[in-house]
């Protein structure tokens, strides 16, 4: 609309605008017809009433407040402040004319929402919405765009150059945005969208009425666009022509899109295409050509269809497609204006791109204001007023639910519902034969009469039927039993109807579509068999099941007799998966199955009536001599033959197959032998798998050498021989760990495979090579002198020394240390002695510098120490098996301040009443892999003792008990898992346990140890780093280990009071610990001078004989503790 207007317009202009207002009012009638015709008949009155009500509310509110907000004197371009209802009476006729014209616009904006939320929004909530549209939402945005129409300053958006000639955005987009907010807040109509199914298309009540409404709207749009000139000018014919062509373009594109998407000319797409085309040209009807108007309308029709389909895909239910027709088309028309308008006619002073920017701003501002305020309105309204009708109201229709508007159809439906509830088919409905509803009622009466006759016939049939028929609901409630069922179950129907079906058929689950066999004992104590076939159906919305019951006792008896007569066939069929051959009493073949055909090479046609010994030929496996035919044995001895030994079956192609067979006589019911059946199975695969399994049991999977178990068996057999001279070689690779650590286990495995091949190259056919585990191998040289053995060992050592292993660019040199032990009658050995001696010799070779050979001698001084360790192996094993280890505890005392009572658990070994300290046996335990088992013993018994003390409340409060963990144990994942489990199960108070780990162990397994520490700390455990200071990189790793205590190595403590270097080291360790929040413990405190020095240095704890000697845990137990750890 023009930004300003002369208040003294001519009378002709006034008459034109008033006539245009009348035409716009016709649009209200068009909306009523369109929306009432599009929705279902049961809601049509409600929709029409909303159109009438929103017109009255919109005009009255717009008169009182809205017109003043929209066209009054502008306050900073934001809102009007004059021309409110009480001020209009004194206004000129022109102002009153503009009020009438704009009141029609306001009603149009409000009534757009009515169609979108049709059939589910209460009448009161809708009128409340219409009030706010007319009061605030439409007038405020209208002021921003058209403010200053009656003089004064423009609205802020209009002053920027925003153009909307007749309201594409101001009227239709505003209404469309409010409609979008409404449908999102209210939700879709019941049954519109169902999961996994396409949207339900609700039937329109009266499509011709809807199309008439569309034509009314086109007529009204002549005034909508033509009257927006606000004067009789030469532009009016062109504006009306553009309006018509926009509508025509929308109709045609809507129909074509309907044909493309739905394969038929969709009525609603044609109607809404017309509306979309009208809305699109409304913004620019005064400045565009006829062809541009047609194009705008055509594009708007396409956009309308695409938007409608998109809304359906998102389950947004717009009952009349108001959002695609008004909102989307309004946005399109507003944004297209800069590109289709004649700039000379537009006369905004802006370029096309600048004008587009202003238009885009207007669209965005409209969306934010209209949608945002509407969304807020609905959110607030739903707190005190329902914005959606009840499901029951939606079901019966809003005509009746909201307006009490009853009709013949509703009355008919009510009678039919009553009929359904009562279930009396004798009732009839009064029918007026001169109305359509009366015809429906008469037809319903005829159907009811026919149904009554059919039900009567069915009842007669069921009463006379010998079979039983029972029915029950899905929840198991019996609904009927016919007389046949009463006789079969020996019950009366009245006693069981309404009871669970399980009472009639206890212990049976009746599955629809299946036959069930029921065994029951009758009143005369005879057993009878019933068969019930279950089917499922529905009576209305209630799921029902029925069962046809039949007495099958006679059939059952016949079936059992038939089964007995088929015993002969069953004997054959039971073994059909194996080879099966049957013969008659003369030994001639009567049957041969497919598997027997494969194994013998004879077909059934070829073998029939042939002697069985010609078809089934057996050979002894070792000698190849023929064996007697089992069928002939059966026919001669008349007893079954079962062979547990394997034999060979000769095939016609001269191949042999290992088999296992059995044979049985075939007898008649009278006991006469009719023939024999031979059943046999191919055991080739079983034998192959057995041989493969035996090989895998005795060989190492990686190197294909013998494994330790098979090697020890061979060695034991050789040692049991009294003659001969043999040599045992024990091989341990040097520098193998470097390959594993550098290139990983795949490289290590490949190296072991290649070295195994080299080992095979140096042995005789009679020699035995094996992999004992890891990088350890063994070689047994039977009947071989020591000189020859040394030559073989040296050749092997040199070959391995010269070998270079290449892996991914890395080149490695490998050595081998070999220990030789002579095995002869002069120096007899047991298996364990021979293995230990060879291991000791290999160890001596390593100790002597690696990559060399050591020949074991019984008086070899270099092995005396090793031999002592070997003796410890048996002693340690005995100690673990017989529980001769003992637990001691030594106190750790606070030096500078009071601290928790701390004791370290120490281990001793008791032999013959003597207590042996760990310094004597731990080296051997570490060498021969006993540490993990010893640590398990210590942890298990310590936790048992502490748990016992805790349960009897004799465990001192705030006491701390230290347990040492070895590096071997920490590298064992199973040990760490079991340790966590045992600590969790012990249930000791937090702060009771402290695990001590040596510094070297922690550094060697840094990440693993850190993870274990974090896990056990969750259970309240603490950690101490033992022998701290011995490593060169102690401090660099300390910050990565979350330990609680540092136990300073005793070598620094012994002379700390006299040696300044030791004193400096201890001070440094204490300072680092203090900085990291770690307390320090000094070990081997033996003198008072040492203790005084530590006190002045601030050391936290001290341990040594000066402060307390180790004592057995048994001396510390309370008197109620009966079981002590050992």
From TrEMBL:
<dbReference type="InterPro" id="IPR043128">
    <property type="entry name" value="Rev_trsase/Diguanyl_cyclase"/>
</dbReference>
<feature type="transmembrane region" description="Helical">
    <location>
        <begin position="55"/>
        <end position="72"/>
    </location>
</feature>
<feature type="transmembrane region" description="Helical">
    <location>
        <begin position="207"/>
        <end position="224"/>
    </location>
</feature>
<feature type="transmembrane region" description="Helical">
    <location>
        <begin position="92"/>
        <end position="116"/>
    </location>
</feature>
<dbReference type="GO" id="GO:0016020">
    <property type="term" value="C:membrane"/>
</dbReference>
<feature type="domain" description="PAC">
    <location>
        <begin position="642"/>
        <end position="695"/>
    </location>
</feature>
<dbReference type="InterPro" id="IPR024041">
    <property type="entry name" value="NH4_transpt_AmtB-like_dom"/>
</dbReference>
<comment type="similarity">
    <text>Belongs to the ammonia transporter channel (TC 1.A.11.2) family.</text>
</comment>
<dbReference type="InterPro" id="IPR052155">
    <property type="entry name" value="Biofilm_reg_signaling"/>
</dbReference>
<dbReference type="InterPro" id="IPR000160">
    <property type="entry name" value="GGDEF_dom"/>
</dbReference>
<dbReference type="Pfam" id="PF00909">
    <property type="entry name" value="Ammonium_transp"/>
</dbReference>
<dbReference type="Pfam" id="PF00989">
    <property type="entry name" value="PAS"/>
</dbReference>
<dbReference type="InterPro" id="IPR001633">
    <property type="entry name" value="EAL_dom"/>
</dbReference>
<dbReference type="GO" id="GO:0008519">
    <property type="term" value="F:ammonium channel activity"/>
</dbReference>
<feature type="transmembrane region" description="Helical">
    <location>
        <begin position="360"/>
        <end position="378"/>
    </location>
</feature>
<dbReference type="InterPro" id="IPR035919">
    <property type="entry name" value="EAL_sf"/>
</dbReference>
<dbReference type="GO" id="GO:0006355">
    <property type="term" value="P:regulation of DNA-templated transcription"/>
</dbReference>
<feature type="domain" description="HAMP">
    <location>
        <begin position="407"/>
        <end position="456"/>
    </location>
</feature>
<dbReference type="InterPro" id="IPR029020">
    <property type="entry name" value="Ammonium/urea_transptr"/>
</dbReference>
<dbReference type="Pfam" id="PF00563">
    <property type="entry name" value="EAL"/>
</dbReference>
<feature type="transmembrane region" description="Helical">
    <location>
        <begin position="319"/>
        <end position="340"/>
    </location>
</feature>
<feature type="domain" description="EAL">
    <location>
        <begin position="869"/>
        <end position="1124"/>
    </location>
</feature>
<feature type="transmembrane region" description="Helical">
    <location>
        <begin position="165"/>
        <end position="186"/>
    </location>
</feature>
<dbReference type="InterPro" id="IPR029787">
    <property type="entry name" value="Nucleotide_cyclase"/>
</dbReference>
<protein>
    <submittedName>
        <fullName>Ammonia permease</fullName>
    </submittedName>
</protein>
<dbReference type="InterPro" id="IPR001905">
    <property type="entry name" value="Ammonium_transpt"/>
</dbReference>
<feature type="transmembrane region" description="Helical">
    <location>
        <begin position="294"/>
        <end position="312"/>
    </location>
</feature>
<feature type="transmembrane region" description="Helical">
    <location>
        <begin position="236"/>
        <end position="257"/>
    </location>
</feature>
<keyword id="KW-0472">Membrane</keyword>
<keyword id="KW-1133">Transmembrane helix</keyword>
<dbReference type="InterPro" id="IPR035965">
    <property type="entry name" value="PAS-like_dom_sf"/>
</dbReference>
<keyword id="KW-0812">Transmembrane</keyword>
<dbReference type="GO" id="GO:0003824">
    <property type="term" value="F:catalytic activity"/>
</dbReference>
<feature type="domain" description="GGDEF">
    <location>
        <begin position="724"/>
        <end position="858"/>
    </location>
</feature>
<dbReference type="InterPro" id="IPR013767">
    <property type="entry name" value="PAS_fold"/>
</dbReference>
<feature type="transmembrane region" description="Helical">
    <location>
        <begin position="15"/>
        <end position="34"/>
    </location>
</feature>
<dbReference type="GO" id="GO:0007165">
    <property type="term" value="P:signal transduction"/>
</dbReference>
<feature type="transmembrane region" description="Helical">
    <location>
        <begin position="123"/>
        <end position="145"/>
    </location>
</feature>
<feature type="domain" description="PAS">
    <location>
        <begin position="565"/>
        <end position="638"/>
    </location>
</feature>
<dbReference type="InterPro" id="IPR003660">
    <property type="entry name" value="HAMP_dom"/>
</dbReference>
<dbReference type="InterPro" id="IPR000014">
    <property type="entry name" value="PAS"/>
</dbReference>
<dbReference type="Pfam" id="PF00990">
    <property type="entry name" value="GGDEF"/>
</dbReference>
